[in-house]
Amino acid sequence: MSSARPHVSDQERRTRLVRRHLLAPDTRADRVEEVAASLIGLHATDPASVYLSARARMREPSVGAVERALYDDRSLHRMMAMRRTMFVVPDHLAQAVHESTGRAIAAKERRGAQKFLLDGLGWTAERYEAAEEAVIAALRELGEATAAELGAAVPEIAERVHTDAGKRYASSQAASGRLLRTLAAERRIRRGRPRGSWTSSQFRWSAAPEGEDTPRLDEAAAKAELVLRYLARFGPATLDDIKWWTGWTLTATRRALADAGAREADLDGATGYLAPNDDERGPGADGPEAPTTALLPSLDPTAMGWRGRDFYLEPDHVPALFDRNGNIGPTVWWDGRIVGAWSQRRDGEVVWRLLSDIGAEGRSAVGAEAARLTAWLGDTRVTPAFRTPLEHELRTG
């Protein structure tokens, strides 16, 4: 790593965030694939967030454009990746993301699923593997199927595991849940169109095309590539940021930074890292001509892009904007900062509240953006999967 330590101020980091994450009007994308690439991936734990994150960054956003990329062109891949979180990743990054983060997650998923089903149902390892092969065979015959439809075709995966019997929190889970999640993590099957609208999380499943396997990337090389991609879009970032965002160990993170040739930067006394070819006064250093606003959904990749968020989020605002597990709700942005929250009420209106004073110009811009989002959503109602205190208050107030 270079010994040079250029200084990057918080203001410059916010300027980079606005431009590199396509939040300024002149940076908007024409295609959803460009949006996903600008953020490496779109958070997809909450299906609606994929569409709302894309909408905030596209010149002419539409639900149809996202659906075509996900389900027709297959230029976007929904996959379990960084931090064991669901992401939608552009095709050209999918292999590196899988090799650097997803493959280890898939191996852990397999161990957990086998233990859950072997212990819970008394299956043998051979029966587990036979059930997997039967599911894939059924999907090749059916083309697409929901978990319930697969349970009818492969009855053993409809068997239920009962846990905590006799307790008030006793529950049961079909074998299909763990088995399908593992196959998806291994990229042997994939999620198709959901049942219902684009906000639904009840997906249909299909088998991965035969003969689609690509040569495995070297894990270390894949990790170095992912770090370079991350620093190009989110840098400068600290070691803790990168470790948290990827979900890697400290040792793996340090090695990936070294392999990537990352160089150090001074973040007002803290050590950050830049991509080796990133000129601190290069693209992203000069801000937009005027402050910009954005209404970003829960778990948006920008809001969840760093562990150290003080440069764009007041610490005092965290309790109102996050749930107890660290999931951020829908946020209002102004000039590269989170300044409030928004929600959609039952009548469809998008309402918002500021936690910071952004002046008359800022309030007018946020109001106009809320009106545009209300019109874009139309009859669709969006409820975040993870409710946060201020979002809940706005929705019911």
TrEMBL record:
Database matches in Pfam families: AlkZ-like
UniProt-recorded name of the protein: Winged helix DNA-binding domain-containing protein
UniProt xrefs under InterPro entries: AlkZ-like
Record region (Disordered): 193-216, 269-299
Classification via PANTHER family: LMO0824 PROTEIN, WINGED HELIX DNA-BINDING DOMAIN-CONTAINING PROTEIN
Domain of life: Bacteria
